[in-house]
């Protein structure tokens, strides 16, 4: 469950108005998820600046005031970070090299993926969230060998294409992958809830509050996703 944190009610009118400063939105790698959340909230993509964050220190820009709000998954529990209600879901996938034994499959079980070495938690990334992204064990109890170092997408691609490693990840990253890496759907890990996060106790600009409220309201009225 994603923890719910109250935030101020937005002013009248929609988010992302043309005369307001752009909302700085923290994202991980690909803009696809963010653009979808923005569109469903009734906002305009051009009224946002998308700022990629580093998995080795995902909250640095938010804490430094360099972004207004960021997209997070699995509701990280940080004392100084407020996390809202889910605004969407991201289906799971396993990333493998194009010549990997699992690459030609339409879908893969996490039990099968556990036969190959996976990636350990990046330093600075919340351990409780990483255990949901790359569980220490499969649902059947098979240990997942988290041995490879995860830093940048370039380094990830290099490891995947020079070893038989796998990375338990998300379907949304597929757009950021080069041709030599495939994202194969995982059939037995639930989709990750996506939420917006901001500095706990911060007085957010009206346009940011409006965006959060609109994104959460849209998700609340949408059909439940697995």
From TrEMBL:
<comment type="similarity">
    <text>Belongs to the LysR transcriptional regulatory family.</text>
</comment>
<dbReference type="GO" id="GO:0003700">
    <property type="term" value="F:DNA-binding transcription factor activity"/>
</dbReference>
<feature type="domain" description="LysR substrate-binding">
    <location>
        <begin position="50"/>
        <end position="217"/>
    </location>
</feature>
<dbReference type="GO" id="GO:0003677">
    <property type="term" value="F:DNA binding"/>
</dbReference>
<keyword id="KW-0804">Transcription</keyword>
<dbReference type="InterPro" id="IPR005119">
    <property type="entry name" value="LysR_subst-bd"/>
</dbReference>
<keyword id="KW-0238">DNA-binding</keyword>
<keyword id="KW-0805">Transcription regulation</keyword>
<dbReference type="Pfam" id="PF03466">
    <property type="entry name" value="LysR_substrate"/>
</dbReference>
<dbReference type="GO" id="GO:0032993">
    <property type="term" value="C:protein-DNA complex"/>
</dbReference>
<protein>
    <submittedName>
        <fullName>LysR family transcriptional regulator</fullName>
    </submittedName>
</protein>
């Amino acid at each position: 469950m994603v923890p719910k944190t109250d935030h101020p009610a937005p002013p009248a009118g929609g988010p992302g108005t043309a005369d307001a400063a752009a909302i700085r939105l923290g994202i991980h790698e690909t803009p696809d998820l963010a653009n979808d959340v923005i569109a469903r909230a009734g906002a305009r993509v051009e009224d946002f600046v998308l700022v990629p964050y580093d998995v080795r220190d995902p909250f640095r820009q938010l804490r430094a005031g360099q972004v207004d709000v960021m997209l997070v998954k699995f509701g990280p529990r940080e004392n100084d970070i407020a996390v809202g209600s889910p605004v969407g879901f991201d289906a799971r996938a396993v990333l493998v090299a194009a010549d990997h034994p699992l690459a030609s499959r339409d879908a893969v079980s996490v039990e099968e993926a556990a036969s190959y070495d996976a990636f350990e938690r990046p330093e600075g990334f919340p351990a409780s969230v990483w255990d949901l992204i790359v569980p220490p064990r499969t649902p059947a109890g098979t240990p997942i060998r988290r041995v490879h170092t995860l830093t940048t997408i370039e380094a990830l691609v290099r490891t995947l294409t020079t070893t038989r490693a796998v990375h338990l990840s998300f379907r949304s990253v597929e757009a950021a992958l080069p041709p030599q890496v495939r994202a194969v759907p995982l059939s037995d890990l639930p989709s990750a809830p996506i939420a917006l996060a901001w500095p706990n106790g911060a007085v957010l600009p009206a346009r940011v509050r409006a965006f959060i409220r609109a994104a959460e309201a849209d998700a609340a009225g949408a059909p439940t996703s697995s």
